Amino acid sequence: MTMNGPEVGDRTSGFSLFDTERKARTLDEFLGKNLVVAFYPGAFTSVCTKEMCAFRDSITRLEELDSGVVGISVNDPFTNAAFAERNAINFPLLSDYKRGAAEAYGVSLKDFAGMSGYTAAKRSVFIVDKQGTVRYKWVTDDQGVEPDYEEIQRALAEIG
After folding, report:
1. pLDDT by residue (tens digit) across 38-81?
2. Which pairing describes strands 16-18 and 24-26: parallel, antiparallel, or unpaired?
3. Domain encompassing residue 129
4. Are 48 and 86 in contact (CB under 8 A)?
5. In the structure, what pLDDT confidence band is assigned to residue 5 with cuts at 50, 70 and 90?
6. Most buried of 5, 81, 90, 115, CB within 10 angstroms?
7. 53 is catalytic
8. CA pair distance 74, 150, nearest whole angstrom
9. Does residue 68 sit in helix, strand or coil?
10. What is the pLDDT of residues 105-121, one digit of tens each?
11. Out of 17, 27, 48, 109, which one is annotated catalytic?
């Protein structure tokens, strides 16, 4: 693993983060199927809403590919719960309020939105296979760009 977080082929960093019900969730509990780990900068922002809704709308296809999704942001569990409810998000949203997962995955975004001292997570997607190995990594420095959802599905299909 590099200073930039795990690369394709690396065993991924585990995490223990609170979900929208303030229950601690670990990476290990999601393994057993492939997992799309989608970091997003902030709940209720326009691009993040579009991204999480795109994953919501593709959940049936992802399940057909023996895959699940978790969204991770630095938002607190209460904000993530309101965001999930407002947008009918049908997968776990996890709160990285201590920023440990963003740091471990190399996706910390310092001074987000021009706010000195505020660190969010860069918009990024990791696909972790059933054994916990990173099989796909996409990180953008342009937070207005969404991931290529078809590319993610192709990568999942290749993993099997």
Report:
1. 999 999 998 999 999 999 999 999 999 999 999 999 999 999 99
2. antiparallel
3. 34-159
4. no
5. confident
6. 5
7. no
8. 26
9. strand
10. 999 999 988 899 999 99
11. 48
pLDDT at residue 2, as a whole number: 47
Scanning the structure block, which residue is given the tokens 């607190």?
A: 76
Q: Can you say how many angstroms the Cα of residue 27 is from the centroid of all Cα atoms in its chain? A: 11
**Contacts of residue 128, Cβ cutoff 8 Å, sequence gap at least 6:** 12, 27, 31, 34, 35, 37, 134, 135
Q: Does the residue 21 lie in any domain?
A: no
Is position 22 within any domain?
Answer: no
Amino acid type, 21 = E
**Confidence band of 13 (pLDDT split at 50, 70, 90):** confident
Alpha helices in 105-148 (DSSP H): none
Give the domain CATH number at 75.
3.40.30.10
- Would you say residue 123 lies in a domain? yes
